[in-house]
Structure formats: C-alpha cells, structure tokens
Amino acid sequence: MEAVNSRNITLKQILKDNWCSFLDVHHLLVPWYVAYNIWKVVNCREPDGLGYATFSCPVHPTEICHVPRTCKSRFCSTCAKIQIDKWVTGMNQLFPNCSYFHITFTVPAQFRTLLFEKRVLLNAVFSASTETIISFCKEQGFLPAVTAVLHTFGSDLKRHVHIHCIVSAGGLKLTGKAERITRYRQRKRINPKAKKKKVTVKENDPKWIACHMFPYTMLRKRYQALLIEHLKNKIKENIQSSDPDQDLLVFSDSAVMKTFFDDLKQEYKNGFYVHVTEERQDLQMTVEYIGRYARRPPLSEVRIKDYTGEYVTFEYKDYRNNGSKVLYTLKTLEFIKNLVRHIPPHYFHVIRHYGILASRVKSKFKEITDTLLATPPAKEKSKNWEERQTIFTGLNPLLCKICQRTMRFVSAYLPQPLAVIKKSLQITFP
User: Fold this and answer.
1) Read out DSSP for 201-223?
2) Which residue has the higher pLDDT, 150 or 266?
3) Is residue 141 classed as helix, strand or coil in its secondary structure?
4) Which residues does 59 contact at the CB level (< 8 Å), separation at least 6?
5) Which of 66, 17, 77, 89 is nearest to 44 (CA)?
6) What Å distances lie between residue 286 and 55, 129, 311, 383, 384, CA to CA?
7) Contact status, residue 106 vs residue 132, Cβ threshold 8 Å
8) 310 in the Ramachandran plot: left (φ > 0), alpha (ψ -120 to 50) or beta?
9) Nearest CA to 74 among 366, 309, 291?
10) What are the Cα distances from residue 402, in Å, to 57, 88, 263?
11) Does an H or E element contain 188, and which?
12) Cα separation of 280 and 95, whole Å?
C-alpha cells in the first residue's frame, strides 16, 4: 500500500482509519474512559460529531460563521497544544519568582506492570516522590513550592512510569525544623502512638529561605523506602476494603508481600533512581518540556514518519545508544494499543501541586512570595480561537465581511450531548 505523506499524518487520521478494527480485536482491553477520549478526538471539529456554534452579523444576518466545537482532550494533538499554552502561562504566574530544581523519580521495572494494571496505585508514586522532597525541606526549616507531573511512557511508547517535579530552590520559613524521618521512625517503633513534631509557615514574620542543593544519595534511599511503604499501604487498604481487588488478594500473604517489595532493597542497595538537575533559572523552558507530554499525546505527530495503513513508523531517541534517533515500525493496531494505554483514568490528575502551591493555601502564600521575591514577570496570554484564526488566515472570521462589525452568538448545534455519549460508552465498555 502506498505510504501517506508524512506531513499529512495525524493521530486523528490513524485512529479514524483503524479504531473499529482495533475494537474488533482488543475490545476487552479498552476501558470506557479510553473509548470516550478516542470518540472525542475522532469527532473533534467535526460538525456531525461535536457540533458547532453559529455567529452572525447583527446588521447583515445572512453573514454567518460556524465555529466548530473542540474536544479539549489532552490526547488530541490540536486541542492539547492550546492547553499547553494556557498551562505554561499559568505556571509562570503561579510559581514563585525564584530559581528551581527539576527532579525526576522513576520506579523499578518490577513495579511497572503492577502500576499499569492497577492505576489507583499511581497515587502512591505521587505521595512517595513529593513526601521525599517536602520532608527533606521541612528538616531544613522551609516549605517549598512543588509541582509534580506524572508520565507513564518513554519516547518509544513503552511503559515507563516516572514523576517530574519542579521544586523551588528554597521556600517560606517554618516555625522550626522538622524531625528527621529516621529518628521519627525509631520513636514510632518504641511508642506506636508517637506523633511528628508539627511545624507551620511563619506568616507573621515571613522569610524566604534559599536552598541550593538537594542531596542525591539521600533522595534515592528515602524515595525507595517511602514508595515501598506507600504501595504496601495502598494495597492493604484495598484488601481490607468491602470490595477488594481480587488480583491484589495475593498480597494478603505476608511472605508474598515481603518477597515482592522488601527484597528489592537488596537488589537496589543505593535506592531507586532519582535525577536532580543543577539549579535553573528559566522556568518556562522546563514547564514547556514537561507540558509537552503531560498535556499532549505521548507521541508528537512530527515524529510519525510513515503510515501505510497497516504499519506506522515513528522516530524516537534511543537513550541506551547515546540518544541517537531511531526509526521504529509497528503494525497499526499494535501502535494504537501502545498509544491508548497511556490515557489516564477519568478525573485522574496527572498534574498536582504541593507545599506552598497546594490548593488550600496557594492564594495566601502567593501574596507573601510576591512580596518577598517580587511578582513574576507577566507572560503573554494564550490566544483564543478568533485570534489564532486571524493570525493563520490573515482575516478575522468573526468580523462581518460587509460592515466589519463583530458577529454575535446566535445558536449552538450539538448532535449528541457528551453526557449521553459518556453514559453509552460506560455501558458498552468494562
């Protein structure tokens, strides 16, 4: 079969051509939220799918403009680009005006299948990685700003669960220094009722405490201990619940739990892998890098080099071979399988904020950090549909061609409400 021109290859096209065939083979592997995302992507900007809004000139009602509705899915390459621009702008305004570290936490290969099959356990990876950072910072006497982003894939679309953390190089001073985790655990063994010393941000006399180093060795070992602890707790909670996961009941045997988790400490004597960058200044660069994969599909369409209908060829960096670029060819159905398994469950947050960026305190601490560090420089807001179309075509689509007045919203055409689509897919798919 003749190859499609690489410049015209889109994920939407590949999915549109092959999704029905994929379901014929892999129907039982597709959760409803995956089918829902794919439906939205395939019907994005399609008048008979998601519908459109109609605008008309108040003076010349025959002059109309149909604005297609978008899916706003992070799995849609077009919509996701818009979401990235909004997120980058928001992060630059939200994050304190200071230098930062980019810290990456990975999980050992032994955990990848477990985390993919039981997505609820991904919360343990968030908890372990952020607690590793914040507990160290509290021991130094400050509370940092932390944004954590989950990635479940590598550049070759294989399973590779890891957390990217953007951590401020310092934080707001606490009322004291927290007790080291190791000492607290020793007290806890002696007295099970022992509690941690509480420290809070000093709001009456706030100060910014700078931090220019995160000890790599400590992070690895502490993260290892915390990840194993949080995973065990999550599994025990599930087993003891009224509706336990049958696949996790095997861990009710303490010998199985010990073999699967505790024995890894001997295999990974230096702890699980953690990477800490040097202290950086350009926050936007890092946010854009992380956002490319948190708010967009796992694979950029630019990397798709060939599509014949039966096969898809894409490019990726082989980090085992000095990061050289390699072409990888898969059967289309296998490509789709590798792609859609990285769609997160419905309402699962892959981006989370901690420390002084936590939702319940961020507004209060934002005022303090802006006073101590100065307000971050304003960034250009992301453009709306009208502005993007004006730049792309050179003409404003919402201006009447006759009188140049701004068109007004008249009506909306919605073939099927998304709530109906969602309910239908929840019934059809497991």
Assistant:
1) B--SS--EEE-----HHHHHHHH
2) 150
3) coil
4) 400, 402, 403, 405
5) 77
6) 39, 18, 34, 21, 24
7) no
8) alpha
9) 291
10) 9, 38, 76
11) helix 181-190
12) 14
Residue 362 to residue 356: CA distance in whole angstroms: 6
CA atoms within 13 A on the CB side of 167: 32
Over residues 276-308, the pLDDT tens digits come to 999 998 888 888 877 776 778 888 888 999 999
Task: State the average pLDDT for the chain.
Answer: 89
Q: What is the C-alpha separation between 16 and 45, in angstroms, rounded?
A: 13
Instruction: Report CA-CA distances (Å) from 110 to 235, 259, 260.
Output: 16, 12, 8
Alpha-carbon Rg of the chain, whole angstroms? 25
Distance of CA 95 to the CA centre of its chain: 17
Structure-block tokens of residue 24 = 């014929």
Neighbours of 118 (CB within 10 A): 16
Instruction: Give the burial class of 29: count Cβ atoms within 10 A of its Cβ; 0-12 exposed, 13-18 middle, 19 or more buried.
Output: middle
**Do the Cβ atoms of 116 and 103 come closer than 8 Å?**
no
Give the strand pairing for 304-307 and 64-68: unpaired
